[in-house]
Amino acid sequence: MSIPHDRMYLKFRLYGFLKNLRFFDPFIILFFRDAGLSFLSIGLLYSVREIFVNVFELPTGFLADSFGRRKSMLLSFSSYLVSFSIFYLLPGFWFYALAMVFFASGEAFRSGTHKAMILDYLKINGMEEMKVEYYGHTRSASQFGSAISALIAVVLVFHYGNYRIVFLASIVPYILELFLMASYPAYLDGDIARGRKREKGGLGRSFSETWGSFTGIFRNRNAVRGILNSSMFGGIFKASKEYLQPILKAQAVTLPVLLYLADQQRVAIIVGVTYFFLYLLTSFASRSAGRFARKVADISTGINLTYIIGACLLIISGLSAYVGWYPVSVAAFIGLYIMQNLRRPLNVGYISDTIESRVMASGLSVESQLITIITAVFAPIIGLLADVYGVGVALAVVGVVFIAVLPMVRVRRV
Questions:
Q1: Is residue 1 part of a domain?
Q2: What is the spatial distance between Cα 159 and Cα 235, in angstroms, rounded to a whole number?
Q3: Spatial contact of 303 and 350, defined as CB atoms under 8 Å apart
Q4: Distances (CA, A) of 145 to 19, 88, 128, 280, 340
Q5: 27-36, 179-188, 263-272, range with the lowest pLDDT
């Protein structure tokens, strides 16, 4: 059975494409370093972001299930717009910390909510068995957006000669996202929101029913392991993924090419082009998740296998950077990105098999909340290790931790 390319399929893919037009992504650490921040300060900023995501996460997921997912998404992109404006207009650590708080609000209102809308749409239309492949297609559009974003970011940084401009440019696609979210049909607000419109006095009952279903998640061992597995990989990946940028910068400095350009322009071209091809590969990986899931014995096997490979790649990347084998380090890091995007649809499919659809946004928000906790813990640790021992050692140490916790997060067949 092939995926129907109807209007909502196109809207879901357009959402992912626009969402990933974050022109600052390939240069965020270089932006902070250019502003004079240490790796530890950068790690602390990431912790601020993740701590506030953690504060906002569960209530926003719960409110999305109770009051409407479209409203949640509109609030999300409004918060992002405030964050980008602060990054562009107000330099300095504390202003960046404030921008991170607004960014965290956007993440909290968005994370889990849109995936829940997709899964709800598939359930309503009798296409639940296609969830891994369907979500893989939408995530593929997101990664393609990141690829295009990297090329546009190169042009912006090259032309304007600074990294700050990328935040101003990121405002445009996020304004378009507001209009796209407003065009989503009302029935994707969720079962509870639709029920409340039909029943008078159902508000208290909605909260009670949602809370009961939500607490049931933690009594399901498979659901807990699925959430922990996804959260551990996602959190460590999120805390470490931007360190590809200083590795690429070190590689750019050693390459005997484009010597007639200023250093920042050379770095911009090499970093941006690398990210372009990286995101093309991750786009293909996401789109291939359905085929990958069919080739392995079951989803749980694919999740565990990609976890182990991803951890090993992080260790290889760190050790290679430490000894100066930058091409090997970059290649291993790209492999880590591919593993994350290959396994992400598998994680969503596994989690959706183990929790009730009525609390899907809340359940996926629990997963996102754990990701933020893990990221908040590891981001300053990686930053401190990078300041003291170098980026390579920091990544290798985290990769070892990655492997060590596998017995506690290995998922089982459902």
A1: no
A2: 34
A3: yes
A4: 8, 22, 26, 9, 17
A5: 263-272
Quote the number of domains for the chain: 1
pLDDT 10s digits, 160-197: 888 999 999 999 999 999 999 889 888 777 655 555 44
Residue 2 lies in a domain: no
| Radius of gyration, CA atoms only, the chain | 21
How far apart CA 219 and CA 185 sit, in angstroms, is: 33
Nearest to 71 by CA among 171, 203, 193, 214: 193
Q: Establish if 321 belongs to a structural domain.
A: yes
Residue range of the domain that includes 294: 7-409
* CATH number, domain with residue 346: 1.20.1250.20
